[in-house]
Amino acid sequence: MRIGVSLLVAAATILGVAGTASAQQTLQQVRDRGSLNCQVGLPTPGFYALAANGTWSGMDVDMCRGVAAAIFNDPSKVQYQSVTSAVRFTSLANGESDMLSRTTTWTAVRDGQLGLEFAGVNFYDGQGFVVPRASNITSARELDGATICVLTGTTTELNLADYFRANNMRFTAVTNENVNVLVETYLGGGCDAYTNDKSGLAARRSAFPTPNDHMILPETISKEPLGPVVRHGDNNWGDIVRWVLFGMIEAEEMGVTSANVTEMLRSPNPGIKRLLGVEGNVGQGMGLPNDFMVRVLRHVGNYGEIYERNVGANTPIGIPRERSLNALWTNGGILYAMPFR
Amino acid sequence: MSQITAPPTTVLRRPVTAPMRLGAFVNDATVRSVFYQAVTFVCVVGLIWYLVSNTITNMAQRGMSAGFDFLDVSAGFNIAFTLIPYREGDSYLRVFQVGIANTLLVAVIGVIFASILGLVVGLARLSTNWLIRTLARWYIEILRNTPLLLQIIAWYFGVFNLLPLPRASIDLGGIMYLNNRGAYFPSPVPEDGFGLVLLALLAAVVGAVLLHIWARRRLRDTGRAFPSGLAGAALIILLPLLVFQASGAPLAWDWPVLRGFNFRGGFSVPPAFCALIVALSIYTSCFIAEIVRAGIQSVGHGQTEAARALGVKPSRTMRFIILPQAMRVIIPPLISQYLNLTKNSSLAIAIGFPDLVSVWMNTSLNQSGRAIPIVAMTMGFYCAVSLGVSFVLNLYNRRILLRER
After folding, report:
1. B162 vs A90: CB contact, 8 Å cut-off?
2. In terms of CATH, what superfamily is A127-222?
3. Is B262 helix (H, G, I), strand (E, B) or coil?
4. Residues pairing with B344 in the sheet
5. CB-based contact A75:A65 (threshold 8 Å)
6. CA A281/CA A275 separation, integer angstroms
7. Contact by Cβ (8 Å): A3, A52
8. Choosing a second label site near B342 at 20 to 30 A (CA), which of A148, A165, B314, B350?
9. Superfamily of segment(s) A23-124+226-331
10. Complex ipTM, two decimals?
């Protein structure tokens, strides 16, 4: 009897292990499944927000929708996987997610050692601090000796330590893996400041009971290029995610929007013709139809539309785009898509 | 006659060296057991080999680094509370050690508080006073029937996070301060000559142990008792104190002082630590209380009556007659409660206390991305601690077991 049980356990374990798929042919797996497994984080306004009726929206969610639209011509064919930042890379590496789109910073160690491939940057961010106005703090340099709330397992945690070391200041960290617990601690006075990427701070602040009682300090202490991530080993899949992102940026530069994409199909501009697949064969090499960007633009829109809809000046989050890094390179920013040809 | 009957007997007596049939192997219990054990062994070894090689192949295929080479790399993050010195530039190996030290600190303090509280509540549960008995019962029933994680979070958010801000700290006699950033104590700073005091303390402890052994031997040989406990305690307290005064009080205190955002100097523990210790001790004390009660009730009431009839004092009845017998019932479940407390301390992650799971299996795992070595090391530590504690307590249990003669 005992032997029977152990053999059964052994067999089950072997089958379970053998079940992990190989890294190749993600596109084929997604097509067979009929939906894209896109990993986002715990709901955060502006980037991956969850509405009361269960629908997701946000900058990073639109990245998932764009890829789904390119493959299926239907942006709703996405299974959203909301996991804590602690398990994000494991979940991607073992094949549970096809891609990850969740304000993840591109770093050398992540790129080189974790078996990840960063497909591009969809938001240039930097780390800052939010403090209560009542504290009369106006600069991060005044935070010597402060208690600071920070998410664990993030680049934020490392930048924080670096900044204080570099400026010869001391701090006490209050850490947690759950952003909601941290915000609750900060609002309850459990720490003097809360640190995160500035976009994240703006998003969180918009959801505070009294947003105007808190201010984001002017200092930006790090570079946080955020973007979608795929697994190592399937270069074609990485190409698809990368060129959907580039296509959204290129479309804004060319003035193609979700509203005028049908008319633009008749545009004489050769650049637009290639972007929309009227000329050339950009999609073919990636296993997509040549007009995949028409699908993306029709259903999701170009980068500018996505930005304004989710985090722009007219949203509660209100991160101004003019003169920021996230403006197009033609407008003084650093958003620059590689050529579609 | 004898010649006729002889051949059948030789036929019946089969020679021992004759070849065995296959059926004999199958029917032989020893052979069968060896065979099955060999099969199981091969299966288990094969399974482990398969899992390890499969993992290594898969990780290599995905370009993920395995191995322990990351242990020398500097970790670069801050840890809010460290028992042993740590700076941001220290290695991941140091982070592992910091996590172990913090976890063991929580476990040791938690076990001490839980035992004391459990003993008191367990005795209160047996009290003849209705109010005490009922209070103890409700304490146990409410606290052990709600999830520990909720209790930890409730203590953190409901109590320690609601304490006043640093500027309005609760002042406990000008010695200790309490605010929502933690508890602050003065820390002793030994000066030249403090080594002598420590030597005196060591000598006093050795003396007290020797005194105790001598007193027991005298009690056994002559029947005359000597208060060795009291005398030993006096020795341990008075001798170092005397040396301390004689050597000119070589100890300074580092007082916590409110400066800038918070207190500086002295020794401090974060609110998460307080919440964790309180929640773990209280929760585990409920189980220990029930174990103590069951142990005492397992000793027949006739023993107490017999002791009373012989004129033994109630305190001595408890110490020499009831408790030694109750301990046999108490020790085995108590071991598992201590182990539970140690393992439950990993829930610290919910409120951000930097224990082993929090700094190692969460933060370090995330920063380095080496999931497999890190999880293996964490499991190895908890396994080693649990086996170690249960080994020591099992030795003690064997010593006090009923010796049937």
Report:
1. no
2. Periplasmic binding protein-like II (3.40.190.10)
3. strand
4. none
5. yes
6. 10
7. no
8. A148
9. Periplasmic binding protein-like II (3.40.190.10)
10. 0.71
